[in-house]
């Protein structure tokens, strides 16, 4: 098996092109095909759809299931609005909340196993103070398999090991398709399409993990932010990118500590004295700020505490945690001789990233998953629906697939400028034309190290500006000297280019919003206060005439009103009455 | 520049099937994997034939592959492979059997339920559970007398999934099973009805010798109980296991048992933060103004979760 | 600027005696999301070619013969 360059170019035509075959993507493709079986639906994936994306080994559970009898769409919409400091267009959130139960039923029929009581009814767990939203998946390892089975049955065309690099647009700005390159041969693929759905996951390789291992990220490292970069270059608006993703993790292992799994059994996040310290109620930037403060304090570091539970209960938790989602977690603890029954497990915070699954930023979409570019959709972790997690990826993927299929059935294939293809070929293949230069791993390390040094919160204006200047130097190196000796290195090279784009966007967005909001996510030390008068709005970032610009966008009027009283009730809940 | 086909090609089933006659079992095994990948129901006859392979590794692969098909034919083959002498084949077949979706498949599974191996019997009942076929009821009821507790637990699940009032006597009997895990399932299973007999059985389980059964009983009682069931729950507040105390608190809160307020308030002084929090939450649910004073005392508790719950509870008290 | 060869210990190991890549198997190579496994031309067996592993384990889970073991990358251990 040699990894050699092969000269090759193929152009294919389809109706609906779905890019990214992780979670949202397969669902989008499935729904598009079911909506109109006449359509040609293509699912393009950088890895292999069978085992790609955040859920490659399965999941522990649904974090945000809105199930009748446990919560209502209105209640969920309210809570998400409050948890995101009000910076939310409610329509997509409400749409998700109204449709997700139907999707759970569908996933259940696919054979994805959710926790049920002895009578076979869904068995939700209460984790938050207000609603009950967590539906565990004790056999969550079935999820990808079951999804893949459906895709194969519907005869959706699958293109594995192709990495999308740029979108194609028509003269009028409408989407016209995408360009991709094979990750094992560097052959070129031009995909013409009537509608395109972006499902390329989070930007998970933005910050550098504390271990220094480039691929030891919280997110699946195939998600290098290509989707954000492609949307940006196609002229789509990206919302609130300054609202980073930062997660609490098992230190060094850098995988989820899983309060959602262990919480219902009585486990909790503690400081070195074994005491609880988190005041806030939601998985939010506020919570991460408290986590960060405790880490830095004399009572740090922070731990996951299970050693007060009955050994049988711990066994039950281990059974879940070490089997699905990140099954190597058990091996990590074993190698260090850590037993949950005896000691608390050291935790830390993750590197920064972009991800709406856990925060509120992403390619701006409305309640039909439409971006600001006609014909272009986005769903899952890269789209701006806040806190949507896995079920949001499935549900919004479905919404995108259905709408995109409807549109594709009505329009002709847009024309595009073939000049774009040859320009993109030149850009993509440039690192392969050099025999000498800087390899992608070094460029990536440096970019991500700069992200940690200058862009990670607490954010300081002067530091971020220095960061911008240093990143510009790296970009020069990338354009001048990046070298790829085989197609695999070429994939990594293209990923560095996305990572660099995301780093630039992170800096631009963070500098633009001159206030602090969302706790740690956008903690600007030199603008410490929340400024609702000037900043109770979205920020949109986009490419205009080749330049990165930011603007404000008003929040759509709420469809589920939040009484002033409710907002302050939440504040009261989370603010401690002691110092 | 050459053109290429960018789409996955899963191969021609007949061509792949030819490799099933190869002398090398590894090659036959890989052929089974490839057949399953085609996701075409047409390959099923080939897989059924490969299920007879004399090499266990090939049969193992078939047992895994059949999990992809969810049909009655697949169920028939799996019911057979569950009886395989090789334990890994049997285990894989059991797992795949649980994937079968077609209710008609029950007919393929039922004839084997009297198999001498307890593993096989348990696996078959596990396969039957989600099919919710009424034809499974008789055999499942019979299996509640099985000597093996795993078989009884799986059979109990088959019965419980059907949610039939007529099965109440068996479910109630199961709350007195010799095995604690069966008793815990039974206590959970009874929550589909609020019939007095079911409630009484669940209430009785609060005196079970096993703490996990007691905890499950407290939780179940919270779902189907009435205020008149409060006595046993109040007793549960004094359980030697905090887990049972916690579930009892939750249940009393859910049932809004006003008379339990003083007993609950005592647990506000527990050393275990989880109990202080649950007690505060229960007092909030019951919303008896009489609890205000004791709640106020906890407003500056050392544990933030307790403080939050107290603040929430105080708003409920008005 | 010549490129140097920096040694690195890889986390994923394959038991050559169990691996049936020489019979046509490519399962682990196919499923790896990071695309870091290859079949060796020399030995006809699977091996980890690039040290870019998410320790996610599809390679180990899906290998039909149990030939793959995923360890935690050294820097994290
Ligand atoms: C470790 C971890 C634990 C989690 N736990 C939970 C949980 O318990 N509960 C819960 O509800 N949620 C959880 N989440 C969140 C949830 O998994 C995600 O929100 C959801 O899966 C995201 O789906 P997605 O489709 O957006 O992205 P993904 O599923 O990651 O899919 C993105 C896909 O795009 C492909 N791709 C990327 N770039 C390109 C390109 N250039 N060309 C082609 N393809 C490309 C990738 O290979 C990948 O397959 C967790 C996430 C992680 C990482
Ligand atoms: S999956 Fe296993 S048998 Fe197949 S190539 Fe990989 S290591 Fe070898
Ligand atoms: S653990 Fe994951 S990333 Fe590492 S080799 Fe296996 S499949 Fe690939």
TrEMBL record, chain A:
Fumarate reductase/succinate dehydrogenase flavoprotein-like C-terminal domain residues are: 450-558
Q: Which GO terms describe its cellular component?
A: plasma membrane
**Residues spanning the signal sequence:** none
A GO BP entry is: anaerobic respiration
Which Gene3D superfamilies does the record cross-reference, listed alphabetically?
Answer: FAD/NAD(P)-binding domain (3.50.50.60)
The record's annotation in InterPro entries points to: FAD-dep_OxRdtase_2_FAD-bd, FAD/NAD-bd_sf, Fum_R/Succ_DH_flav-like_C_sf, Fum_Rdtase/Succ_DH_flav-like_C, SdhA/FrdA/AprA
GO molecular function annotation: electron transfer activity; flavin adenine dinucleotide binding; succinate dehydrogenase activity
What UniProt keywords are attached to this protein's entry? Plasmid
Record field: transmembrane: none
Give all residue intervals belonging to the FAD-dependent oxidoreductase 2 FAD-binding domain. Answer: 15-386
Query: Which Pfam families does the record associate with it?
Result: FAD_binding_2, Succ_DH_flav_C
What is this protein identified as? Reductase
| Provenance organism | Sinorhizobium americanum
UniProtKB/TrEMBL annotation, chain B:
User: What's one GO MF term for it?
Assistant: oxidoreductase activity
SMART domains in the record: EZ_HEAT (SM00567)
Q: Which domain of life is it from?
A: Bacteria
Pfam family, any one? HEAT_2
Q: What are the coiled-coil residue ranges?
A: none
The alphabetized UniProt keywords are: Plasmid
Entry annotated with the keyword Zinc: no
Q: Which InterPro entries match?
A: ARM-like, ARM-type_fold, HEAT_type_2, PBS_lyase_HEAT
Spell out the PANTHER family in the cross-references: DEOXYHYPUSINE HYDROXYLASE (PTHR12697:SF5), PBS LYASE HEAT-LIKE PROTEIN (PTHR12697)
User: What exactly does this protein do?
Assistant: Catalyzes the hydroxylation of the N(6)-(4-aminobutyl)-L-lysine intermediate produced by deoxyhypusine synthase/DHPS on a critical lysine of the eukaryotic translation initiation factor 5A/eIF-5A. This is the second step of the post-translational modification of that lysine into an unusual amino acid residue named hypusine. Hypusination is unique to mature eIF-5A factor and is essential for its function.
Protein's name according to its UniProt entry: HEAT repeat-containing protein
Organism in which the protein naturally occurs = Sinorhizobium americanum
UniProtKB/TrEMBL annotation, chain C:
Keyword terms: Iron, Iron-sulfur, Metal-binding, Plasmid
All residue ranges annotated as the 4Fe-4S ferredoxin-type domain in the record: 10-42, 44-73
User: Cross-referenced Pfam families, in alphabetical order?
Assistant: Fer4_7
InterPro entries per the UniProt record, alphabetical: 4Fe4S_Fe-S-bd, 4Fe4S_Fe_S_CS
What superkingdom does the record give? Bacteria
According to the UniProt entry, its GO molecular function terms are: iron-sulfur cluster binding; metal ion binding
The protein's name in its UniProt record:
4Fe-4S ferredoxin-type protein
């Amino acid at each position: 098996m040699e990894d050699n360059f092969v000269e090759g170019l193929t152009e294919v035509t389809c109706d609906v092109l779905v890019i990214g075959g992780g979670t949202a993507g397969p669902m989008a493709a499935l729904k598009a095909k079911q909506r109109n079986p006449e359509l040609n639906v293509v699912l393009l994936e950088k890895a292999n759809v069978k085992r790609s994306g955040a859920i490659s080994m399965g999941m522990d559970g649904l974090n945000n299931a809105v199930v009748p009898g446990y919560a209502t769409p209105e209640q969920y919409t309210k809570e998400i609005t409050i948890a995101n400091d009000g910076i939310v267009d409610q329509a997509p959130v409400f749409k998700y909340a109204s449709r997700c139960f139907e999707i759970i039923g569908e996933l259940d029929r696919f054979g994805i196993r959710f926790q049920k009581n002895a009578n076979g009814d869904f068995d939700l767990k209460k984790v938050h103070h207000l609603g009950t939203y967590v539906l565990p998946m004790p056999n969550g390892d079935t999820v990808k398999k079951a999804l893949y089975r459906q895709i194969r049955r519907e005869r959706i065309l699958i293109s594995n090991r192709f990495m999308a690099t740029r979108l194609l647009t028509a003269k009028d700005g409408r989407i016209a398709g995408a360009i991709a390159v094979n990750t094992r041969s560097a052959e070129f693929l031009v995909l013409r399409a009537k509608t395109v759905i972006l499902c390329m996951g989070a930007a998970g390789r933005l910050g550098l993990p504390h271990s220094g291992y480039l691929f030891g990220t919280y997110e699946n490292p195939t998600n290098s932010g290509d989707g954000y970069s492609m949307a940006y270059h196609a002229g789509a608006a990206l919302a609130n990118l300054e609202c980073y993703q930062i997660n609490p993790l098992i230190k060094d292992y850098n995988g989820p500590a899983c309060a959602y799994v262990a919480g219902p059994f009585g486990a909790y996040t503690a400081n070195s004295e074994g005491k609880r310290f988190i005041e806030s109620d939601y998985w939010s930037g506020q919570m991460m700020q408290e986590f960060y403060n405790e880490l830095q304090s004399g009572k740090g570091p922070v731990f996951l505490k299970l050693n007060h539970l009955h050994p049988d209960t711990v066994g039950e938790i281990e059974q879940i945690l070490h089997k699905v989602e990140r099954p190597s977690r058990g091996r990590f603890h074993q190698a260090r001789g850590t037993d949950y029954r005896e000691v608390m497990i050291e935790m830390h915070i993750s590197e920064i990233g972009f991800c709406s699954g856990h925060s509120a930023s992403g390619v701006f979409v409305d309640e039909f998953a439409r971006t600001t570019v006609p014909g272009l959709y986005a769903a899952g972790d890269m789209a701006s629906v806040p806190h949507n997690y896995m079920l949001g990826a499935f549900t919004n993927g479905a919404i995108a697939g259905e709408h995109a299929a409807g549109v594709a059935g009505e329009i002709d294939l847009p024309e595009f400028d073939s000049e774009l293809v040859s320009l993109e070929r030149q850009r993509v293949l440039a690192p392969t034309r050099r025999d000498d230069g800087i390899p992608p791993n070094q460029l990536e390390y440096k970019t991500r190290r700069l992200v940690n040094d200058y862009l990670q919160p607490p954010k300081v204006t002067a530091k971020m500006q220095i960061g911008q200047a240093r990143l510009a130097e790296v970009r020069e190196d990338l354009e001048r000297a990046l070298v790829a000796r085989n197609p695999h290195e070429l994939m990594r090279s293209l990923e560095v280019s996305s990572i660099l784009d995301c780093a630039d966007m992170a800096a631009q967005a963070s500098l633009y919003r001159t206030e602090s909001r969302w706790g740690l996510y956008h903690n600007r030390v030199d603008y410490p206060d929340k400024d609702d008068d000037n900043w109770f709005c979205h920020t949109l970032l986009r490419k205009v005439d080749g330049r990165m610009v930011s603007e404000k966008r008003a929040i759509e009027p709420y469809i589920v009103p939040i009484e002033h009283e409710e907002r302050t009730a939440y504040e009261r809940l989370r603010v401690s009455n002691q110092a | 520049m050459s053109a290429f086909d960018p789409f996955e090609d899963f191969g021609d089933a007949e061509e792949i099937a030819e490799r099933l006659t190869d002398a090398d079992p590894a090659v036959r095994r890989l052929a089974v994997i490839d057949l399953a990948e085609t996701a075409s129901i047409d390959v099923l006859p080939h897989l059924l034939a490969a299920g007879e392979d004399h090499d266990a590794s090939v049969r193992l692969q078939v047992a895994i592959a059949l999990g992809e098909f969810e049909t009655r034919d697949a169920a028939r083959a799996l019911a057979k492979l569950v009886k395989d002498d090789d334990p890994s084949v049997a285990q894989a077949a059991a797992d795949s059997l649980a994937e079968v979706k077609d209710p008609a498949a029950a007919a393929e599974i039922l004839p084997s339920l009297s198999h001498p191996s307890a593993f096989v019997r348990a696996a078959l009942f596990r396969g039957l559970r989600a099919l919710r076929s009424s034809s499974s009821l008789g055999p499942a009821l019979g299996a509640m007398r099985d000597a093996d507790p795993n078989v009884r637990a799986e059979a109990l699940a088959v019965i419980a999934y059907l949610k039939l009032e007529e099965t109440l006597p068996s479910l109630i009997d199961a709350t007195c099973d010799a095995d604690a895990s069966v008793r815990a399932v039974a206590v959970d299973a009874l929550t589909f009805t609020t019939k007095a007999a079911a409630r009484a059985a669940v209430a009785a389980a609060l005196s079970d010798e096993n703490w996990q059964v007691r905890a499950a009983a407290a939780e179940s009682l919270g779902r189907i109980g009435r205020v008149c069931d409060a006595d046993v729950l109040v007793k549960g507040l004094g359980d030697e296991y905090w887990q049972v105390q916690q579930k009892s608190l939750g249940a009393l809160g859910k049932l809004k048992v006003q008379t339990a307020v003083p007993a609950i308030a005592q647990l506000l002084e527990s050393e275990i933060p989880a109990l202080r929090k649950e007690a505060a939450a229960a007092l909030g649910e019951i919303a008896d103004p009489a609890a205000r004073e004791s709640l106020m005392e906890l407003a500056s508790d050392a544990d933030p979760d307790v403080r939050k719950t107290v603040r929430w509870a105080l708003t409920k008290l008005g | 600027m010549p490129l140097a060869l920096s040694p690195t210990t890889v986390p994923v190991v394959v038991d050559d005696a169990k691996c049936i890549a020489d019979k046509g198997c490519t399962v682990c190579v196919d499923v790896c999301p990071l695309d870091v496994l290859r079949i060796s031309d020399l030995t006809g067996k699977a091996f980890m070619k690039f040290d870019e592993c998410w320790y996610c384990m599809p390679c180990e889970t899906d290998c039909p013969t149990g030939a793959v073991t995923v360890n935690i990358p050294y820097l994290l251990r």
